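Fold this complex.
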Amino acid sequence: MSDVIVVDKVSKSFPLPEGKGEFAVLDNVDVRVATGEVVALLGRSGSGKSTLLRIMAGLIRPSSGTVDSSGKRLEGANADVAMVFQSFALLPWLTVIENVELGLEARGVGRTERTKRALKAIDLVGLDGFESAYPKELSGGMKQRVGFARALVVEPKVLFMDEPFSALDVLTAENLRGEIDDLWNAGHFPAKSVLIVTHNIEEAVFLADRVIVLGSNPGHVRGEVAIGLPRPHDRNAESFKRLTEYLYAVMTNPAMAVEARSAQPAEPAAARGAKAPSPFARPLPHVRVGTISGLVELMVDMGPDQEVARLAERLALPVDDFLSIVDAAALLGFAEVTDGHVTVTPIGRDFATTTILRSKDVFREQALARVPIVATIVKTLAQKENRTMRADFFLDLLDEYFPAAEARAQFNTAVEWGRYAELFEYDANEERLSLGEAGTV
Amino acid sequence: MLQRVLPAAGPLRRLSFGLSDVAVFLGALILLALVAKIGAGSFVSFVPPQTVPGVSLDPRNLPYYACRSTLRMFVALFASLLFTLVYGYAAARSRYAERLLVPLLDILQSVPVLGFLSITVTGFIALFPGSLLGLEAASIFAIFTAQAWNMAFSFYQSLRTLPADLNEAVAAYGLSYWERFVKLEVPAGAIGLVWNALMSFGGGWFFLAASEAISVLNRSYTLPGIGSYVAAAVAARDMRALGWAVVTMAVVIFLVDQLFWRPLVAWSDKFRLEQNAAADGPRSWVYDLLRGSRLRRILVALWTPLGDALGRALGALTRVRAKGPAAPANPLAETFYNAALIVAVALLIATGARFILTSVGLAEVGKVALLGFYTLLRVVALLVFATVVWTPIGVAIGFSPRLARIAQPIALFLASFPANFIFPFATLGFIRYHVPIDLGSVLLMALGAQWYILFNSIAGAQSIPTDLREMAADCDLRGWNRWRRLIVPGIFSYWVTGGLTASGGAWNASIVSEVVSWGSTTLVAAGLGAYIADATSKGDWPRITLGVGVMSLYVVFLNRVLWRRLYALAERKYRL
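Structure:
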């Protein structure tokens, strides 16, 4: 197998506002896509997987490192690939066939040839009869079929998919995923290779021949797992289950080394986190207190020790959201995660089963002890004579470590937790934090 | 439907006021003075057309006049569209152009267009010596200035807010700049553009009426048109002719709306960015007729091969080339840019000071500022008056879907009906009942401007969700409390937009409503509008420049300290 796309030591960072340095998204990433294979980039939010895909598609330039496509250094949009977007990205004022013809038109294909090829592609994805419909008349699943037709009609060397099924409901996604897999297995797929970005572990194992696991903050390759099952991958096979469970364990434990067959050995992620001593540098998972409490309660009901994979299945949540909740519970000391298992701690049990006032007390103690940013905000407010502080002050501190939007989101999460714990109050009008009742004690 | 009308919010969104804004503002004013000075010097020898056509008051000529006027409107609309596409694109696509073009647009929106009229008429006549074309061009230009800025802002805004995924998709599929322009950028801006054009077109009738008959340098110029017909009728004290003109104008506005704007609005609805089907879009019988016609199919069939060839040629010319390494902002260039700006601002201030000291004198500046204050009082009075009268009515209409369906088109119609057609009737009333023009001019200004408050109130009331209204009824909120807790917060942001548009319109209208005449009787109010009008008819360039400059300063200042803050408040606190 020859390599179509070779990513060599690519790093990417975005400047932070007001010249406060840079926010690293990708760090020294090596990835290859060979002819004839389906590769999945699996990672949680913050792993830079979408950024990596866009760098390979030539939509974003890397800060350093190179991308070669078909042996040529990539400059500008990559002509070897066609992309399927999470949000479909269809032009609402063009009909289905006009949308599908978009890439052909840009390549200067004449009208008759264009129509012929577009009709064939529309037929292939099962949208026969909808050629002159507008996207707004179609359901989500049908819109994404248009997205696939638009990508496949140009017969790209590599088909790029950016979480193509995550905007669809579970059943529609399942259906479309299966059909795309069938097309690939039947051997006359219009693309030579496929690269899919996903945070859905099942999806990665089901579709891919090779799963590249990305770690977060900044994004890096932790290692890769070869699936090595006969296609189509049978979900009920023991080996399928073993692989999914293994990947769940890997995803819930950033410090775990991925059994690597790639050239790049996994680096312990703990070492990466350790270089950030500021309480404002450590990202909080964006989860509401009620959600954390819901998860812990559910686990108390289901039995204190759960396999992550089973729990995720039971909740039918997007894996990324689910893992964020688990992270938050672990951060607050309500749960522990080891080897793909979650266990509720005694404190967690107390938090989930007691009265609302007592559970606030528990939450407050845990937040003060275990969430540095909350503790620091309380300490800062307590030191002020009037016990209040402009939100800008804390936002500025967060801005040192996060891009503006993420800094805002971090701040909002910290405020939500602190408010719940009655540690501080927040006046959204004046954008001012003040010490709460419980914070003064 | 009216929610998309709100055109003026664009400039309010930018809250920062940078050095480049100062430079652009001063630069624009100085340029104005320069043009005026040159106009006074070299253009004095301009050759006006030998025979200026007279206007016959026979009502049978009215259809012809109306056609001439309408043609002018459409030529101006076409020019505005071209300007919008080029200007908006340049401002949105080039970082450096943006810093200059956006504040410039901001200023141009604030400058009272009618004050320019004398300058442009002279300029255009000089451009086409001895021909009526100069007058035509000047009139078209006046209408253009009433339309172009709003439209350009709307297009710029929609280019800046293109959905990121669509932008990525066109880049990923290798579309050339031309293909991106016609497939993504223009369609995405189409709805905003059509609505802004519709609103500005309505405002354009006012300028048309004012620009067809104008006296500059103590000479009056007329163009065959409905505006000059009204002027002639006023001079001849012919009530019957005036009545005919009003009727004709109403018919023209109605026809243009039915035959042009409604089909256009119905057509442009397909450029909605939402991916979900709307319940019912705007309808137009003309559009339905056209869509099903054979003529359309023939035209499409003829156009297709031509369009294909053109598209391919332009597409090939504007291929997106591979970009070199992204150039980081060069700190040296930035420093240089800022230094150049400081020097420019200093030079501009010096030039301005010199102009004031040598041509008009400080005393005159003080006098003009005082006159501006009088006009400001009028604008404020108008806003208060229109708010007190029209907001309750607008809210009542907005809360009743049935009433709204009937009243909305009427409000839109009234807003686009040129108020200066009604001025003579009001003037007659003032003379007969001895109403002082200092007060009467407020009423005249209100004739055109109040409708913006009305239909923004309607739109605001419609935007208050039904569940909130039910809650208010459930909690027995009544009278003042209902207004304080529900209605005022609910319509606030709409009122800001309406108030801003109304005040802009009122400043402009002051130039024609502080001086009104009936036959040989002329009423003059004390105000900046009258000052500019007087300087214009005398051809006193320094005083025109001073008047227009001071009025622009007032408008810009008000926008910055009042409207922009209110808008920020609306965005922050009262967004539903």
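Chain B has two domains: 19-47+59-274, 360-576.
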